[in-house]
Amino acid sequence: MAAIHVRTDSTVTKPVFDDEHVALTPPMTPPRSEVALPAATRKSENVPENYVEHTLKSTKALPPITWNNFYREINWLSLAILTITPAVAIYGFCTTTLSLKTAIWSVVYYYITGLGITAGYHRLWAHRSYNASKPLEWFLALAGAGAVEGSIRWWSRGHRAHHRYTDTDLDPYSAHKGLLWSHVGWMVLLPRRKPGVADISDLSKNPIVAWQHRNYVVLLLAMGFVVPTLVAGLGWGDWKGGYFFAGAARLCFVHHSTFCVNSLAHWLGETPFDDKHTPRDHFVTALVTIGEGYHNFHHEFPSDYRNAIKWFQYDPTKWFIKACQLVGLATQLKTFPDNEIKKGQLTMELKKMREIQEKIVWPASSNDLPVISWESFQEQAKHRPLIVVAGFIHDVASFLDEHPGGRHLLGKNIGKDATVPFFGGVYDHSNAAHNLLAMMRVGVLRGGLELESEKAVPPSQKLKVIRAQEMYMTPESSGVEEDDH
Fold it and tell me: Which pLDDT belongs to residue 481?
């Protein structure tokens, strides 16, 4: 998106330097020929301008999935987990009575395992948005395993690729491939190509992450089904309810809750910080994802430990991390500078205003109107109702009978300069009156508008959204010929 600014006039002033007072300074770096470039710099010169395009051209994707080969392209393990789990939960609902204690425990365990993903896998390990103490890391690693969404190492590698290559073919769950694909399709069907490169060297050095990765199969069974069943069974004797509701049904809800971050959060809502990619902010998505629904903010500022920045926005993951900080379990909570966040918001607001501005019909500028002498103006005013205000000649024929002050007030100024009466001599006109009058321009009075004065600019144009390149356009670049007079 081109840069957008607001300006208050139509001129650009260039700085003037006094040569006698300019301090001479040596070059900031030695000439290129005098210094050997470090190896890292020489290596970076070989990086293609567009890494994604280069990778897509230089690597071969698997053949497209068709009706003839789709059964060979299914990830049967993922399909089994995503179909058997809800089937078990449905069977449980049909055969087992849900007790109040088990229902409460199911909801509590839903949040525990969900936070293992949102506060652990996502904000701690994938984005390093805060530091966790060892007890908190162990808790989140175990809780995340109970969500049965892969190990920390595997999950974070894919998510870092998602952020680095958002909406491209190197994004493992690109929203451009459809809502169903970004929700579950990317897990059920084998990918056509590997996700883009992502550095997870920091996770490989983490002993808790490595331990969880090595023992993941055992942990997913223990935390996904055994623990919720044991708590309900040993606690109040509801072994079946613990298995069906706190185990299977809870797991189904956790799955689709976090899957919505990849699908719903890229489809529903607004883009208040950046519209370059698909992530969006929406309260509904936040409700179903334990606070991950302010996704436009998250993609713009991924290192921030928050998703929601306003106090009233629903983000229990943020509240959990903050609570951990208060009791000493979390430190160095990262927040993006508020000034930079406001820049993103302002940019989007300016873009919206620019879109509105481009749909509005504006008055003709002095460059697009004929230049008329005073004598010619007075002569033409004998045949049509012309008045001069702030150097512009206006034809008020369409407004004579609509003028709130009466036809006679406009009539007595025909053929005259009515600048003083219009600007308070007779009546201090409203902004709407100034804007409407500007739409009646038919010419420029020679000698009356060598440079457009403040009075000549309608209120609606005193603040105008312009693109950066428009600030420095010359008459030649704009296609407007300068007047020789």
Answer: 39
pLDDT recorded at residue 69: 85
Query: Contact 241/232 with Cβ under 8 angstroms?
Result: yes
pLDDT at res. 292: 97
For the chain, what are the domain ranges? 74-348, 366-470
Q: What is the pLDDT of residue 150?
A: 95
β-bridge partners, 386: 395
pLDDT at residue 70, as a whole number = 83
Report d(CA 364, CA 341) in Å as an integer: 37
Query: Is 422:410 a contact under the CB 8 Å cutoff?
Result: no
Chain-centroid distance of CA 291 in Å reads 17
Low pLDDT (below 50) residues in the chain: 1-4, 9-30, 32-34, 40-41, 450-451, 475, 477-485
**366-470 — its CATH code?**
3.10.120.10
pLDDT for position 436: 94
